[in-house]
Specification:
219 residues; alpha/beta; 8-stranded parallel beta barrel; 8 helices; 8 strands; 37% helix; binds D-xylitol-5-phosphate; binds zinc ion
Length: 219
């Protein structure tokens, strides 16, 4: 069984509270929070995601899986610490060098939050192997970050496989999470390649029955 992290990026404001309740009842493992700053990616979701995260903290005990698609990584980590997310994932591409990556991962972990590192489709797996012993998960973007509802890029599945082989060979306990275009047609590809945590936005939010969809993706 895989874990499912539901991206609430496309949840409408007027349905938000009911949708969060329904997702919890339906059995999502995490709420996936997509924070975009209008710089690292064109869209800006900062205000909406902070509001949604605060609402979830008030009505649910489910863990938050925070995905930072931002240039000012440290400021955003600082902003989310009080909401006690389970995981904060930063982008390798948002850091100026490896030292900065290590420093930011350390900052997350010093606050008793699990740290993740993410790579965009154009970044080679090789670049982040050195961080894998120091993170809870690696988030492989299976679409170009920035928007929900895109198609999974098949080339990224090979990256999942390469990372899984490396993790097993080194005997690490790092999880692989995938994000973007995960639905009933593509889920078997990423699972077979080694993904253990599945982010899904539109596949779940647009489904008639959340519980059935989450169950199908996880099984
Ligand atoms: C893309 C985000 C994803 C995305 C997932 O930048 O990181 O979390 O919203 O949405 P779907 O599942 O619709 O591709
Ligand atoms: Zn995401």
């Amino acid at each position: 069984m895989a874990e499912v992290s539901t991206s609430i990026l496309t949840v409408k404001q007027e349905d938000a509270i009911k949708t969060f309740y329904d997702l919890e009842t339906a059995g999502t493992t995490y709420f996936h929070i997509d924070i975009m700053d209008g710089k690292f990616v064109p869209k800006n979701t900062e205000e909406m995601m902070y509001e949604y995260s605060s609402t979830i903290k008030q009505i649910s005990n489910l863990p938050l899986d925070v995905h930072l698609m931002v240039e000012d990584v440290r400021d955003n980590i600082e902003k989310y610490i009080p909401l006690t997310p389970h995981i904060i994932t930063i982008h390798y591409e948002a850091c100026k060098d490896d030292d900065e990556v290590f420093e930011l991962l350390g900052y997350i972990k010093d606050n008793n939050i699990k740290a993740g590192i993410s790579i965009k489709p154009g970044t080679e797996a090789e670049k982040i192997k050195k961080f894998l012993p120091h993170v809870y998960l690696v988030l492989v973007m299976t679409v170009e970050p920035g928007l929900g509802g895109q198609k999974l890029m098949p080339s990224t599945v090979e990256k999942v496989r390469e990372l899984k082989e490396y993790i097993d060979k080194e005997g690490l306990d790092t999880y692989i999470e995938v994000d973007g275009g995960v639905n009933l047609e593509t889920v078997h590809l990423v699972k077979e390649a080694g993904a253990e945590i599945l982010v899904a936005g539109s596949a779940i939010i647009d489904a008639k029955d959340f519980k059935e969809m989450i169950g199908e993706l996880a099984k």
